[in-house]
Amino acid sequence: QVQLVQSGAEVKKPGASVKVSCKASGYTFTDSYIHWVRQAPGQGLEWMGWINPNSSNTNYAQKFQGRVTMTRDTSISTAYMELSRLRSDDTAVYYCARDPTPAISIDFLDFWGQGSLITVSS
Amino acid sequence: DIVMTQSPDSLAVSLGERATINCKSSRSVLYSSNNKNYLAWYQQKPGQPPKLLIYWASTRESGVPDRFSGSGSGTDFTLTITGLQAEDVAVYYCQQYYGTPQTFGQGTKLEVK
Known about the structure:
The structure holds two protein chains of two kinds.
Chain A: E1 3-6, E2 10-12, E3 18-25, E4 34-39, E5 46-51, E6 58-60, E7 68-73, E8 78-83, E9 92-98, E10 111-112, E11 116-120
Parallel strand pairs in A: 2-11
Antiparallel strand pairs in A: 1-3, 3-8, 4-5, 4-9, 5-6, 7-8, 9-10, 9-11
Chain B: E1 4-7, E2 10-13, E3 19-25, E4 30-31, E5 36-37, E6 39-44, E7 51-55, E8 59-60, E9 68-73, E10 76-81, E11 90-96, E12 103-104, E13 108-112
């Protein structure tokens, strides 16, 4: 069965960086794009971008351009999302999610990780 | 960016009754070449990630009970839950995947009356 297992909660200081991991299993990792979506406390869902695990190509939401980097390690079927220059309003649960259609970058998201709470506080 | 607006923000429905949630997009999400609406619905329970319910506006994801149905086309869409059950209490989101960035509605909180 498809599973996406994310790294645990972290507390970071303003100005620091955080790197969240997302380990995939139950399907061929390089077949499906991985998207990242975040959710601030009590708020809605915000799309951050995607990575193509096969090519490592990425596409980031304009809001995060210059601060976000998405990478992958195909040897361990893991995607990463690194966010730099953290601010207090980056406090959120960060989710990875799978795009189920091979070679399609913009799609609905059928499986989600459990989420990683990132708290930015001095 | 395509703006997704849901209504209402919250609603309370009695068990066994029908719940209706609306979603309106600022531009059409109907792709004319394949006649598909690039619109999905998700359910999110407290402390859990979103769960895909509906895609292509009306196709139910595998394993989703048939009391959940989606309808609409172009810019106006509806999620209907027929025969509300206690486990349906959640926040529901629509999402368009017609254009980048993919965008979500603000969410509709469904409670039992």
